Amino acid sequence: MRLFFTFLVACCLQAYTSFGQIDAETAQQHVIVKFAPLALFDFDNAVQFGVEVPLGTSGMSLQQDLGYGHSSFNMWYENESIRPRKYTYKSRTQLRYYYMTRRRVKAYVAGEFMLKKVIYAENKWVGMDCLDGNCNYFENKFVKTGRTVGAGHVKLGWQFYFGNRMALDLFTGIGFRNISVKAITPGLDNANIPRTDRWFEYDRPGVNEIVPSIAMGVHFGIVLGKFGD
What we know:
Structural class: mainly beta
Strand content: over 45%
Mean pLDDT: 84
Number of strands: 10
CATH class: Mainly Beta
Largest sheet: 8 strands, antiparallel, barrel
CATH architecture: Beta Barrel
């Protein structure tokens, strides 16, 4: 957790010591470095940073977020004596269009593709030789699985600008996500693998699932130098 607080303090110091005034109009050609604090509190937690790059003066920009998480700094496991071995990788690629500009705020609509990979590696009681949720027997064994999520969202957002080069990005959106599970450990065909972070739920390797998805969140940003001419 020290890394997160260090970054937040650095952002605040940068904001107060930056020179030059920034508003919504002058920020049009500036790169913004962002941090997503709510990603730390997800079940699949991650330290997530992003960069927004303007695409000329068209009102469009491209934002790329990357994140990495591990159960060692997941708050949901703080009361557990043994934390699971769990690794999370995230990528969010977003193309946005600003359709309204005021002095301190711009409104936008965006399309986003998210890719998330969660890898579990631990000993579990696994249901073997299962059919329609009924298993012939259970076996305690070390298993390694990968859960891949691909999602598409349409988002609406509002980005606020402050004179000290700080930016606040609020957004909400809807879409769909495809969830697939792959057994990295061999011999897990037709198995039910209990999930560490979802009680009474199981991973079934080879099964794909498409479900509705809701995206809500916030980014804190620092407006950097001018991009392009």
